[in-house]
Amino acid sequence: MQLDSQEDTQTHFMKILTRISNFGSLGLIAAGLCHPASGVAAGTTPDKPNYSTNSADREACQSQLNKIYGAIQEFQRRNQRLPMWLSDLTPEYINDRDLLVCPYVRESGNIKKWREQFNKVPVFGDSGSCTYAYEFCTEVIPTLPDVTCRDYKERQMGLMGFSVPIVRCFAHRPVLNLAFDGNIYESPSEWEDNFVKSPADEMLFHAVPKQQGDESQNQDVLKVIQPRNAETDARILDLSNRYNALLLHLSQMDGAGGLLVTYPEGVQRIGGIEFDIRGLIHLTGKDFPIAFPERVDDIVVNQRCSHIHFLHGAMCSAPEGSTIASYLVHQRGGYTKVPIVYGKDVKTRWFDFRQQTELDNPKVAWASPPNCIGTTGKSLRLYHTTWSNPSPDVAVQSIGFVSHLTDSAPFLVAITLE
Ligand SMILES: [Zn+2]
């Protein structure tokens, strides 16, 4: 659904209410109330459009959003946390307070009046004269007394990755979103719609439930992961019951809000080995912003093999030579530790495709085609590590995956036995 000049905010609000009653979801009610359009409907009705569709206005706002992102990063680096409000960034991280006012709103009239239309919406609660929605504020969601807007966004980030917006500007249609990873993209008023490809996605992305541990996360993830092809060879391991993250964590948005699906899905032959690629087992790292587990045990194998092939990668870089994770290969009588070394086995998932040497050491197993990330110059890469089993006649019972909590957070895409 996209708000445009033909659709008034009242209609939009009615659509949200219809979706809430259809799905009966608390999370969706929260999303609706967090949504500025509900503030518009409940408050004043502007007598003229209060947003711009002009590309020059959008570019001017993007330039400010880039500066705000830099200030948020610096705040986080120095304080080890996000600001409570964007106005906390002034004056130390942002000199000019005008930077927190969209240029379109500043030029088109009364900032106070523009803010009044959102006065019931938690993400607009900044006491300064900020016109941006701060999605990671710590205001409680009125209908969910124990849940703050930040809690809810962190849940969404666990599921959908770092494209979740941290700051939004509703003075434009489409709406402008500054993602947690710094990308800026356009979206309808509900940014989640950019991610939706199926009714199951629609349900989950708009109403992300609270995680009650690894298993409930696995259940949520499985709701939207395609089922494994029943004919897949058992030596291509089925990781379904250990997935805790969607492949969306490997995606990015382009500027127009198109989801760049850059990875191969389903059973794929990579480096001569077939892998079943449908989800991720993602572990955390040191100060990683998403609450992934430190370890995932009991990846069931119960087969003999001469080699184990791991298709994997990492988020964020670590010093070359540091062990960022280990696989624990359990056989009768004990286990063997297989270290994953940064710079030898894996490197961070994104690289500049113009730097061809980035494909060499360690050797990349698969990379997204050049230019597919548009102007950012970035490509995605996955790595393949092979472990030779010194006891091929003894069945491997299970595999554990353990993070060493470095700056780099490891993820496992697939395992195949040989
Ligand atoms: Zn703006």
What does this structure look like?
With 418 residues, the protein is α+β, with helices and mostly antiparallel strands. It has 2 domains: 9-205, no CATH class; 217-417. It contains 9 helices and 21 strands. Strands 7, 12, 14, 17, 18, 19 and 21 form a 7-stranded antiparallel beta sheet that branches. The chain has a 4-stranded antiparallel beta sheet with strand order 1-4-5-6, covered by helices on one side. The termini are far apart. The structure holds zinc ion. Residues 61, 102, 104, 169, 171-172, 176 line the site of zinc ion.
Label this structure with key terms.
elongated, disordered N terminus, 23% helix, 2 domains, alpha+beta, four-stranded antiparallel beta sheet, binds zinc ion, 21 strands, 418 residues
Give the SSE layout:
Blueprint: H1 9-23, H2 26-33, H3 36-42, H4 55-79, H5 103-108, H6 111-116, E1 133-134, E2 140-141, E3 144-148, H7 149-160, E4 165-169, E5 175-179, E6 184-187, H8 199-205, H9 214-224, E7 245-246, E8 252-253, E9 259-260, E10 266-270, E11 273-277, E12 279-282, E13 295-303, E14 307-315, E15 323-331, E16 334-341, E17 350-352, E18 366-367, E19 378-388, E20 396-403, E21 409-417
Helix pairs in contact: 1-2, 1-3
Zinc ion binds next to loops.
